[in-house]
Predict the 3D structure of the following.
Amino acid sequence: MNVPLLKADSASTHAPCFATTHWSVVLAAGHPSSPDAQAALEKLCRTYWYPLYAYVRRRGYKPEDAQDLTQEFFARLLQKNSIAGADRTKGRFRSFLLGALEHFLADEHDRAGAKKRGGGQQFISWEQDFAEKRFADEPTDELSPDKIFDRRWALTVLEQAASRLRDEYQAAGNAPLFERLKTYVAGEGAAPTYAATAAQLGLSESAVKSAIFRLRRRYHELVREAVAQTVADPQELEEEIRHLMAVFSNSGATF
């Protein structure tokens, strides 16, 4: 099922979340040795490991080298004082992370040797075969390393929101309702009529329309919350949402 494009709407007033965003915690601490900052940084990195891996692969590295380089990058990011100069960015974790990776790859260019990068350790866990399969499915005709990173960042945010939405409905005992209604959130042309869905669910057509409205609204809120975790203030949130929309306009995904 296609992940729906987030619409620009008046939901931009959800500013209270900025008091405890992951990236705000990291920036405020100024040093990854802070327990709160370390935990927040690790959570952000676990979310965005694949966009970084895809970026390294598109730079021409073989799968095994890309895996080692990505792990070594995380090792340095999580163990060293790599966040000290982060406030020179505009507060976006996406921008900081890609800039740090580019700097790391430049430093590593002439260091390739027999020693396995990362010391053979996994600082961020992932299934290597799954990661490479995802990369093999990426379009190969128009995406530069920067564009593939942005594409995967955008899709990761949308997939996160979709997964949270599904979990919320399941936790409330409404998994069957979610499965019936999720196609309307994606805006797919093949979605059944409201009347058909109402008959299947044993609800009135107006009740189905209301349920779809709530589903869409909550999805948009969750997307905004996911993006808010990676910026430092509401203005940057609006800019990131616009960027996400622009990146996603020519992309597709499933949930």
